[in-house]
């Protein structure tokens, strides 16, 4: 399969390294950053054999799915860089809308899928996990920050035997290839990366993200280690933390955790 950048991404100076198969695009990107690569460069494959998600969980990516990472070396703090994951979610949602529309134009009977962003780093379709985002960063030469945003999408297959339901684009009747989605993603990334603007535009990113968010105003339970916070999903704050309105009138800011919405919130709280 041949990967290519969209025209806007190519003209903006992005580059690409494509692989038939690789252990982890994020790990490869960080290795290149340590060796002096400054980006911006995309790494992409349709088969990832040692992918990982948050908290070092395995990310299963069989051949035909899309595993991609964008590496940029920037001058910002880790806290500000972390908010780039919200821009990544917006870029992926926009790319999914694009390829979904293209698929419907080719096959008029195709399903009209709806995508939502789940805090902190998932994209859902029909309430099931379609994609995940993992941002990693480390300091490299001259005290600059190498930021890698890994984006994994279930194009042809979704993992089974996991604690949450997952879905693929093929399951949704969206007949596109990983290369088609990647090209659309590189185009959308340019747009939302520019809005983010080194963190200065996070207010706009936050507003756009909330417009597409799953579960706002719904019951939510956030589990982090042995601790669980339950209440209503109120908003995300200026740092990207999830704000939970608890039954005793408090507004709790959560920076990390596993999120359960609606009926599943009571399960997550047990």
Give the helices and strands, then pairings.
Layout: H1 7-11, E1 15-19, H2 25-34, E2 41-45, E3 66-74, H3 78-82, H4 84-106, E4 115-118, E5 122-125, E6 128-139, E7 145-153, H5 178-196, H6 202-211, E8 219-224, E9 227-236, E10 242-245, E11 251-254, E12 258-261, H7 263-269
Parallel strand pairs: 1-2
Antiparallel strand pairs: 2-3, 3-7, 4-5, 5-6, 6-7, 8-9, 8-12, 9-10, 10-11
Key structural traits:
seven-stranded mixed β-sheet; ATP-binding; SH3 type barrels; globular; ATP binding; BirA Bifunctional Protein, domain 2; 270 residues
Low-pLDDT ranges: none
CATH homologous superfamily designation of the largest domain:
Bira Bifunctional Protein, Domain 2
Distance between the termini: 45 Å
* CATH level-two architecture of the largest domain: 2-Layer Sandwich
**Total domain units:** 2
User: What's the tally of helices?
Assistant: 7
Strand percentage: 25-35%
Q: How many strands, what sense, and barrel or not for the largest sheet?
A: 7 strands, mixed
Structural category is: alpha+beta
Portion of residues within helices? 25-40%
The ordered string of helix (H) and strand (E) elements is: HEHEEHHEEEEHHEEEEEH
Average pLDDT figure = 91
Give the spatial strand order of the biggest sheet: 1-2-3-7-6-5-4
Rg estimate, integer Å? 18 Å
Number of E strands: 12
Please identify the top-level CATH class of the largest domain: Alpha Beta
Which outline best applies? globular
Could you tell me the CATH topology label of the largest domain. BirA Bifunctional Protein, domain 2
